[in-house]
Amino acid sequence: MASHRRLKQPGRARVTVLTATAAAAVALTSQAANAAPSEKPSKDEVKSKVDKLYEEAEKATEKFNGAKEKQQKLEKQVDRLQDKVARGQDDLNDLRGGLGSLASAQYRSGGIDPSLQLFLSADPDSYLDKASALDQLSTKQAEALKKIQAKQRTLAQQRKEASDKLADLATTREELGKKKREVQGKLGEAQRLLNTLSAKERAALKAKEDRASRDAERKASDTADAPETKAPQGGVKGSNRTMAAYAAAQSKIGSPYVYGASGPSSFDCSGLTSWAYAQADVSIPRTSQAQANAGTRIASQSDLKVGDLVIFYGDLHHVGFYAGNGQVLHAPRTGAVVRYESINNMPFQFGVRI
What we know:
alpha+beta, 6-stranded antiparallel sheet, 8 helices, 8% strand
């Protein structure tokens, strides 16, 4: 006879767990079905984010420029100090050599007690002549020792100064590397965002940028054809040197923006202005923040003259040339070229007349 066994019923706790799991699965399935698919950012949204990243990159670029300028100054200072230390060591060696010669001369003149020399001398007059020479040698030795001591103190001070500058230089180089990585990170993030756009959308953005560049070239051509007596773009002319700097900047219209670049083939914003003024034999600081304090501030746009520097944004991280009629000539940002643009496209702070 076949045996009939009763199937073992699951425990109450196990039933509860299974029921809860099934309910959770149903709930998740329902949520997934009802969830709206994530929307891809529009071309305008991507452009807005990219523009913001470019602005942040430019802020970091000006800090990078400041660290780079400081590094270059420190390198020159360290070179000068190390040269001084080397020359000072040579001078010290010469002084020590001179002292050795004096000591040898004194030894040859006699190194025993003077009173004993006089007692033993068969020729007192000859001895007195020697004694006078020894006295002169002793005076020279004392002077030589003083010079050596002074040179040693100076040399120690110069070595310490060189050591401090070298430590400062190492810190500055570290800061420079950090700022460079920050700029590259912002630009890389911007490029990744642009890569999310379709080929058609990227082409549309590029076409818009190309139109802006062509407009810049057209305005440059119009200005070049204007009579010399007429101020560029209809504004009031600045000084001769200011206009020479402005003309140098005009000659670079169409040159690409490259962070950290200061010519002659590519520029960032303060790189363009500092390079242009250098062509007019005028030295101005490298960064926009420093250039903001390089001359007389002009508070009102209506008082600007062609060639004045124009400072933008609250932290003063962008600079260009005033071009007259509400236009600026500047190196805008990554992906753009040196061109004219409305002064109202950026938050104006003040002008600077060099």
